[in-house]
């Protein structure tokens, strides 16, 4: 049976894509059969982050009905499988409405599907939630981001997903950000991961590899590893 985990955030810039990438890399290291899906149909970034900017077939081609799901899956040198999306100028609504059924086509073809959803609470995010079993909510330690996370949790639970907890990303532990206890108080959810701000993240993006591979002993990598252990 395939386990679907969607990485969700109502706010752009929280860093959910880097969390999705590094979780995929870590689960792959654990010997799991992983497929990472870029379900952000409006502004996909995973293939760019991982050095796959141009591929012949993408999730968009599957949504158009031109290709089968398996034809849009590639093996990244990191070891996990990747289904990239592409930038498309065509009307998105029809694509968005088909997204959930395409993702369901992965059942039985991968052990774990990690879905990087769009940074909104629009139709494509709602469709990405449909096949998922669990939603990992990503926030930054600022009040607007935390309030957006609260909305995302409610929507995910309304869709029947398990929300095991929240990941606080880009934590700096300075006086200008909310404390972990304050975030927990607002969200009424367990904090299952704290990923500190890490200058090595930009270096890993330049190297087109997950941070846990390029800088395995960095502070953020340690946070990703603790999160993966929590979720395995």
- When the domains are counted, the total is 1
Q: Indicate the overall shape.
A: globular
Major beta-sheet overview: 8 strands, mixed
- Class from secondary-structure proportions: alpha/beta
CATH fold field value: Rossmann fold
H and E string: EHEHHEEHEHEHEHEHHH
Helices, by number, come to 10
Distance from N terminus to C terminus (CA atoms, Å) equals 15 Å
Determine Rg (CA atoms, Å).
Answer: 16 Å
CATH class type? Alpha Beta
Question: Share of helix among residues?
Answer: 25-40%
- The strands making up the biggest β-sheet line up spatially as 3-4-2-5-1-6-7-8
Number of strand segments:
8
CATH homologous superfamily placement: P-loop containing nucleotide triphosphate hydrolases
How confident is the prediction overall: mean pLDDT?
A: 93
Residue runs with pLDDT of under 50 for 5 or more positions: none
Question: What CATH architecture label applies?
Answer: 3-Layer(aba) Sandwich
Q: Please report which band the strand proportion falls in: under 5%, 5-15%, 15-25%, 25-35%, 35-45% or over 45%.
A: 15-25%
Structure description:
With 232 residues, this protein is α/β, with parallel strands linked by helices. It has one domain (3-231): 3-Layer(aba) Sandwich (Rossmann fold), CATH 3.40.50.300. Helices cover 39% and strands 19% of the residues. The protein is built from ten helices and eight strands. The protein has helices at residues 16-29, 46-49, 59-63, 93-104, 123-129, 143-158, 180-187, 200-207, 211-214, 219-231, and strands spanning 3-8, 34-38, 74-75, 81-83, 112-116, 134-139, 162-171, 191-196. Strands 3-4-2-5-1-6-7-8 form an eight-stranded mixed beta sheet, with helices on both faces. Strand 6 (134-139), helix 6 (143-158) and strand 7 (162-171) form a beta-alpha-beta unit. Helix 4 runs parallel beside helix 5 (123-129). It is globular, with a radius of gyration of 16 Å. The two termini are 15 Å apart. The model has no long low-confidence stretch (mean pLDDT 93).
